[in-house]
Specification:
heterodimer; A: 6-stranded antiparallel beta sheet; 30% helix; B: alpha/beta; 9-stranded mixed beta sheet; 8 helices; 32% strand
Chain lengths: 462, 309
Amino acid sequence: MSTKNSEENSSGNQNRRITWEGCSVLLDINDGDRVLFARLTAGSKVKIGDKNCSLQPLIGRPFGSSFQVEVGADGPVLSQIIPNAEGNNLGEKMDDQTMEECRDNRALVDNNTAQSLTGEDIDDMRRKGATGDDIVQALIANSATFEKKTAFSQEKYRIKKQKKYAPRVLLRRPLARSICEAYFKKHAEKIGYLRVDTLSLLLSMANVTAHSDVLVFDMLEGLVTGAVAERLGGMGYVCNPYCGTTPYPVSIVRMFNLSDETCKRIVHARLTELQPSNSGNSTSTDQLVDACNITEQKNENTVSPSPAVDLVNMEESSSGNMETDTNVAAFPKSGNSVKAGKSEDAHREVIESWKENGFSSLIIAAPNMDAWDIAKELVPLLSYSAPFVIYHQYLEPLATCMHNLQSKKMAINLQISEPWLREYQVLPSRTHPHMQMSSSGGYLLSGTRISSNDQAPINTNL
Amino acid sequence: MLLPVDSTEKLSFNRCIMDGDLVIVYERHDVMKPINVSEKGVLQNRFGVFKHSDWIGKPFGSKAFSSKGGFVYLLAPTPELWTLVLSHRTQILYIADISFVIMYLEIVPGCVVLESGTGSGSLTTSLARAVAPNGHVYTFDFHEQRAVSAREDFERTGLSSLVTVGVRDIQGEGFPDEFIGRADSVFLDLPQPWLAIPSAAKMLQQDGVLCSFSPCIEQVQRSCETLKSSFTDIRTFEILLHTYEVREGNLASLQDSDGVLASLKSSKKRPRSTNGQEDSRPQSVMARRIGEVRGHTGYLTFARLSCIG
């Protein structure tokens, strides 16, 4: 165990490692069983198990620390778990045995009589002030079959009981990685089934870095916008183009702890404002406007402010109604509108410079729209040699789009790719791929914009 | 310049090719070459002879023509293009692994990242892009000559202000003490990563993420054993990229198949404009996975330094 203590190293940027009042956090309850976003304020509360806990004790704590519900004099309190105390001893105890495991499940009879402790016994323990860990120990002691289990299933049993009687909350940093993973796990449809590895490829292929001006057509509630902004470090711009009358919602941007500096770099502009004024292709733009409007109506009212708590619950989706899950209140103390889920209009001068010089890259992520319809309007807004990448959950729209870009000689270096991601369980003598995996993270069409009007200098035969 | 180091150099400010610039000469998606433009330079390939002086003043992304009328495209370098053209001194990481590593290591602008070994600098280039403008990548290789070549490459791609290359045996000596508690992320691509893990743990800030890349599962097994003592959230992945080829054409109908083995009718051989009866059915665009691909690159193991208070 390392003994160093260096909390004060990074501060004042989006890379902060200690929570602060008003910051956004990702609460990972019981090892990913439940994931929720919260804003840490003195008054914010979260329900864990059947107890309402204040998030106050989480303020000023390092990201990565774990908390457990303890019942204090004034009700349930979240208190930090110091890893040394409970340690990894469960795991270590297990390792010695697993190698020469000889127990198996031949004697196991599933008749529900193995546990002698009743529900009333447990309630009684609770009234006498037993902690969750005490109850787990008691359950193990009173299980007739525990000793006959393999070390592996003993561990499983222990974890199962611990999750129920002593739930743990892990404080995670809300970065593109964790935000994308949380949504993919619980509300994949909301982010167009964009898997975290696919998002990582989007950012690479679009060459996102400080000082880049990235055109981001984001119909994924702002996930891509936030991820791009996270990589700008407050230099350059993310510009969200839109058709119709209102910009598309970017509510997920609020989950990121972007600095005010960075938030100012997230802007939107009407597509027609970005296009050359004498563009003759108004009919095709109209079509795109219609398509966008349809999608837009679907997205209306996704933001419904709730008075007290600024929480996005990723869990309670049983109603199947997305709107009720995202009851996000505007971040009270900030005057910045991105933090309230809306970006600002791009300034005139900035738009002019984009019209003159082009954007440095383009990302399109619109799962319900035709890729080519959007690409034919947006690719021409790039500077020459600029990369672009289009995400789609289906292959066919990208195939058609690629074919059109190729035949119209708008781009080179075109490629459709699909990432494949497999996770492994790594344990002594028990290493194998996970039994379940995501079968598709979607498809990407990437390419490089070229200047299409280059002519060979003299008497060339074609 | 591979990255815009300040706002005057950004790509969107329509940079034109200048004497001394690094350009990626694109023939086909799988035939590219990095060239430093010089007034008197010439490039000779199967399309003919290209004079660099013709390129100067043209915007990146332009077509350049040879004396014979053949052409290539002149692209601005990016880390992705660089990975495809750099000289291989070692096995390198490719885009799928690279992208996933950057995302999972939670690298954002301003981060301090440690890497060993440097190898051919393929990942390093993308790490530099992710920490820019005010972070830094410290990369170490025990191979003196390799480190020198890597430094030359970073000079050439304009990354020297973001990357420092050190010569050091990280497995044997660990990372230098000056980085204790300072690293946001550590990346290991070493034959025996478990030897470097204790040192990596000392370098990382609390909750900082480590990644170890290993081609063999036995290496992963031993690394994970070592990680358990001071890391949590230990996860191992494998990532691959499938690519697709696309073509437009018509599949033969049952009626046409009389005694002939049907072949795909490509639209290129048969112009659509004829509007004849023979191809009355609409053309369709089809995609298939490209045959031979990398089936394995390596396992990526990630772990987060435990918080102790």
